[in-house]
Every structure is written in structure tokens, then in C-alpha cells.
TrEMBL record:
<protein>
    <submittedName>
        <fullName>Sugar ABC transporter substrate-binding protein</fullName>
    </submittedName>
</protein>
<dbReference type="InterPro" id="IPR028082">
    <property type="entry name" value="Peripla_BP_I"/>
</dbReference>
<dbReference type="Pfam" id="PF13407">
    <property type="entry name" value="Peripla_BP_4"/>
</dbReference>
<feature type="domain" description="Periplasmic binding protein">
    <location>
        <begin position="28"/>
        <end position="291"/>
    </location>
</feature>
<dbReference type="InterPro" id="IPR050555">
    <property type="entry name" value="Bact_Solute-Bind_Prot2"/>
</dbReference>
<dbReference type="InterPro" id="IPR025997">
    <property type="entry name" value="SBP_2_dom"/>
</dbReference>
<keyword id="KW-0732">Signal</keyword>
Length: 350
């Protein structure tokens, strides 16, 4: 279902196919792919909506989450176009299968910003994301560093739990990780995880432990925090007394707490505020008929897309205070609850 930051009415946009050069109060539609990854509802949506409101109090924001359903997202985009959306900001469930939706927007002269995931098969106005290959490199390097510290890089095997095969970012993360790990560790099992599902990641990890043997798994490359949580659950269930190092991404609250208590080795901290706010700035500008210059371009297989690529940050326990807490991503009081309080004190988080 489409929701809006402002009351939807019959006149909240211009008739399809008859867009003006720009408007002081455009209607902007934001589409996010799923809610299993906590960042989307907790950060991306509210940060985007707040920035639009700050830049353009009269602007309307239509919002929809597809719950990892590509057909549902198609209906949501078509509904927004029918309601007169002036700009689409689209984080695609299946980024390789939404060219037809972008084409519908083009036909109605509605500009498109690809958010977080690179859309292929058609050109459009902007792509805003993080340097995804670099994310994978950071994850791979962190895992390799952890294994080298314990002398286990040359013994045992690691398990790679990659993201959804319909998300092109997953391929970039995997590419970056393999660039670091190949030839330096033995990869015992590797999985592409549908829907980035923590439950499926848990099942994959259980399968890997059964196939490789509990004592032979010395590390886990998990592409995000949610799946890391699933893998950790599988390892606990299998009777690990000491968990091998495991990576993550997104700096989910539960993951930050796991890093502090030693269950998870690291996460990739993405400044989602920067991503959401840059996308909101571009959306408002496009809605007003403007087209800001982009610092770089990325080829999506069809053309060069004007692109804003943001820098990721690798975070281990000793870096949480000066990154995640310092930036206000979470307050210390949110992180340092219950049994985590003592772990926070050890790294100076109060």
C-alpha cells in the first residue's frame, strides 16, 4: 500500500504525460524493497522524508515498501505514477527486472533515482549508493585479519553467506570479498541467500556445519548483519563454545551489541543519513526541473549513469565509539543495555 507524508488527494500531481518543467512543490515517490533488514524502516525512510520536508515543506512524499515482492513493487510504482508522482526514488526488489517500470516513468517524463541498488537495462537520471565492491573488500580483509591473528587463515575453512541473487549489490560485495580472500583461505561452502533472509542464512549455516564439520569452520563471511544473526544462531545451536569471527553490514543495533559482547567480529557502517539525504536533495531538485552535476558515472550495461558513491566504514568493537556513537546513529543508552553495559565500559562507551 502507498502511504504519504502528506494527505493524498486527487490533485497531488500532474496528469501523466503532461509534466511541466518543474514545480515548487513536486510529489516524490520513495520505494524501498523490504523490511527484514531493519535499516529501511528505521533509517532510510524517516531520514529521506525529513530531508524532503526540510528542503520543501510543501512537497508530498508517497511511500511504499514491497516486502521483497517484485510484483507488489510493480503495482506500487504504477499506482504512484497514476497518482501523479513527479519523481521516483526506487530501491528495486529485483534491479534487473524493473527496466519496464523505469520506461513507464520515462514515457510520463518522470525522472528516476536508483537508490542503493543499480538498475540495469535502461538509462535514468541518477544512482546513489555506497562503493559496494569496497564493502566486500573491507569484509574480506577484516575476516582475513581476524584469522591471521589467531593463526587460522591457513587451516580450516570459511563459509560465505552472500546476499540476494536479485540484488546487484550482492554481486559487488561478493566480488570484493573474493578479491581479498581467494588464494588465502579455503572456502568450504558458499551460498547466495534469497531475500537476504536471516532464517535462510541460518539454514545455510546449519548445512555448512553438517557438511564441513563443526571444528573445521574457522570463519564466516556474512554480507549483512541480519544474515550474520542467522548464522550465529546456527552455530550456537551446533554447540560452539567460542564463535569463529563473522562479518556483517548495516550496523544494525543487535549486531553492534553482538560485536561488543564478542559474538560478531565486525560490521560495515554505512552512513545511511548521507545516502538518504543526498537522494532527497536530488529528488527535490529533479522535481523542480533542476539536474545537479554528479561527481562520477557508473555503467549499468546500457549507459553511463550519473552517480554519487559514498564511502563505507569497517567497524570492530574498538571503533564503535568514534563512528556509530559519535555520529549519533545510535545513542549509547540504546546500545549499552543489560548485559552489553559491561562490554560498553571496556571500550569507553558510556
Amino acid at each position: 500500500m502507498l502511504t504519504a507524508a502528506a494527505v493524498l488527494a486527487g490533485g497531488c500531481g500532474n496528469n501523466a504525460g503532461d509534466k511541466p518543467a518543474g514545480s515548487d512543490a513536486p510529489t516524490i515517490a520513495l520505494f524501498l524493497p523490504e523490511s527484514k533488514t531493519t535499516r529501511y524502516e528505521a533509517f532510510d525512510r524517516p531520514l529521506f522524508e525529513a530531508k524532503v520536508k526540510a528542503l520543501c515543506a510543501a512537497c508530498k512524499v508517497l511511500y511504499a515498501n514491497a516486502d521483497q515482492d517484485a510484483a507488489k513493487q510493480q503495482q506500487q510504482v504504477e499506482a504512484a505514477l497514476a497518482q501523479g508522482a513527479d519523481v521516483l526514488v526506487l530501491d528495486a526488489v529485483d534491479a534487473g527486472a524493473v527496466a519496464s517500470l523505469v520506461n513507464q516513468a520515462k514515457q510520463k517524463k518522470v525522472p528516476v533515482v536508483a537508490y542503493d541498488r543499480l538498475i540495469s537495462g535502461i538509462t535514468y537520471e541518477y544512482y546513489v549508493s555506497f562503493d559496494n565492491v569496497r564493502v566486500g573488500e573491507m569484509q574480506g580483509q577484516a575476516l582475513l585479519d581476524a584469522l591471521n591473528k589467531t593463526g587460522k587463515a591457513g587451516s580450516g575453512q570459511i563459509v560465505m553467506i552472500n546476499g540476494s541473487p536479485t540484488d546487484p549489490s550482492s554481486a559487488d560485495y561478493k566480488k570484493g570479498a573474493h578479491k581479498i580472500l581467494d588464494g588465502k583461505v579455503q572456502i568450504g561452502r558458499e551460498y547466495d541467500t534469497p531475500d537476504w533472509s536471516p532464517d535462510k542464512a541460518q539454514q545455510e549455516m546449519e548445512q555448512a556445519i553438517t557438511a564441513l564439520g563443526r571444528d573445521n569452520v574457522v570463519g564466516v563471511l556474512s554480507a549483512n548483519d541480519g544474515m550474520a544473526g542467522g548464522a550465529i544462531a546456527a552455530m550456537k545451536r551446533a554447540g560452539y563454545t567460542t564463535l569463529p569471527p563473522i562479518t556483517g553490514q548495516d550496523a544494525e543495533l543487535a549486531a553492534v551489541q553482538r560485536i561488543l559482547t564478542g559474538e560478531q567480529y565486525m560490521t560495515i557502517y554505512l552512513d545511511i543519513r548521507q545516502e538518504a539525504e543526498k537522494s532527497a536533495e536530488l529528488a527535490v531538485a529533479l522535481g523542480r526541473g533542476e539536474k545537479p552535476a554528479a561527481p562520477t558515472k557508473v555503467n549499468n550495461g546500457t549507459g553511463d549513469i550519473p552517480t554519487f558513491l559514498l564511502d563505507p566504514t569497517a567497524v570492530t568493537a574498538d571503533k564503535i565509539k568514534d563512528t556509530i556513537i559519535k555520529d549519533g546513529f545510535y545513542k549509547a543508552s540504546e546500545v549499552c543495555t543489560g548485559a552489553v553495559a559491561a562490554a560498553c565500559a571496556k571500550v569507553g562507551i558510556q
